[in-house]
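Listing S7. Sequence submitted for prediction.
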Amino acid sequence: MRTLTFGALAAALLCSACASGVRRADVTPAEHFSASSGPIARSVSISLSDDAQKKVVDNIKFNPQTLLDTVKRTMQTSKLLDENSSLATRSVDIVITDMRARSNFTAIAFGFMAGADMVKGDVVTRDMQGKEIGRFEVHADYALGGLAGGMDSTRMDWLYEKFAQLTLESLQGTSDDDAGKSAAGKSSAGK
């Protein structure tokens, strides 16, 4: 009986360890990117909000350039980014609004009880004139501990990949948010 209880508790903790989500802003309806029918992006940029610039000092493991490279690679693989195409008519600006990166010791020793590693930011799409045509917030967090959460590269790479995946899905219109589910409180756990 104890083994069953312990197993159920362990499964519940693992499922609550990683969560992510997308929330659309109340601006013009999002225009979905498509490799076959357009539009596609010509550029992707990243910046930090004023609040995030203050927090990055305490979160030196967070690397905005690595996050940008991951988003670009993900979009290029899906043929939604072509920096050299005259057919690319959009730009994507990512504004990181919050982040947290636990120390190795904290992640190993305390795991999810020490809170989650997290990246949150606004993704803004613009037309060729710079007019905003869509905006959504992406957040990814990772709270596993022990050996699964002890390596900085494991945690941060997961966060960057998840952020890029959610950004891509929202741009394509394939995220749960675009399927009509409520974004408030929505999460996809254990990914």
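Caption to Listing S7: primary sequence and predicted structure tokens for the chain studied. Strands lie at 18-24, 41-48, 90-100, 117-126, 132-142. The first strand starts at residue 18 and ends at 24.
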